[in-house]
Amino acid sequence: MLRAGGYQVQRVDRMPRTQFEKSARPYVERHVAQTLADVETLRERYREPVFGEVPVWRVVEMLSHVVDRMDHDLMNVTQEIHVLQMLEGMLAEGVDDESFLLAAILHDLGKVLYLVDEDPANISGSNAPIGEYEHGLGFDQCVFQWNHDEFGYSRFAGRVPDHVAWLIRYHSVIPRTCLHLMDDRDRDYYERYWKEFRRWERDTKSISRVPRTRMTDYRALVDAAFPAPIPF
Fold this sequence. Notes:
Elements (H helix, E strand, L loop, with lengths): L1 E3 L2 E3 L6 H17 L3 H10 L7 E2 L1 H7 L16 H14 L5 H9 L41 H9 L5 H9 L4 H4 L5 H20 L15 H7 L4 E2 L1
Antiparallel strand pairs: 1-2, 3-4
Helix pairs in contact: 4-9, 5-7, 6-7, 7-9
């Protein structure tokens, strides 16, 4: 361990992914251990705006300062880079559905909670339902582990097309834990949107590929969708 002006500097780890996963493990364990009471506490904590009434574009810009402490596929790559990688992957496949592109821009905006020092265990990670539920009940009638998905959904529900809001809310679900809970709407959105969206979201991640576009290239899309500030 090196020290520079009182700041502890770790030597370069020859296996950075292993070190990253080791550092993330406590957050993962706390996220998996969430209870119904934890979810209700978090919902109440973030019921009111955190950043006030702000343009959505300003929130998008915050992603350049956000690093997901639990994503070993990105490690120290910012969420802005992640979103750009995803957008470029979608466009390379000829995606021209602006609602899909908008969903890509918005899906991780809930991670700006890193900027207010929320526990990473309550921001990142995949989500599974908490408790047992009747088959076919529908996702909206179940309680899932709470993270950036639910926070983002709480800000965008009613302000974007229904399938975009659904993707924001459920893009981190673990299918094997919840497919039996889907109602007709869930199954429709899962087949038509989630599978492809999740593939783009997962497979475009890279710690070395530098995006060729800038986030400002997509500002017109965001401003058209949100011409006025919203509570965030």
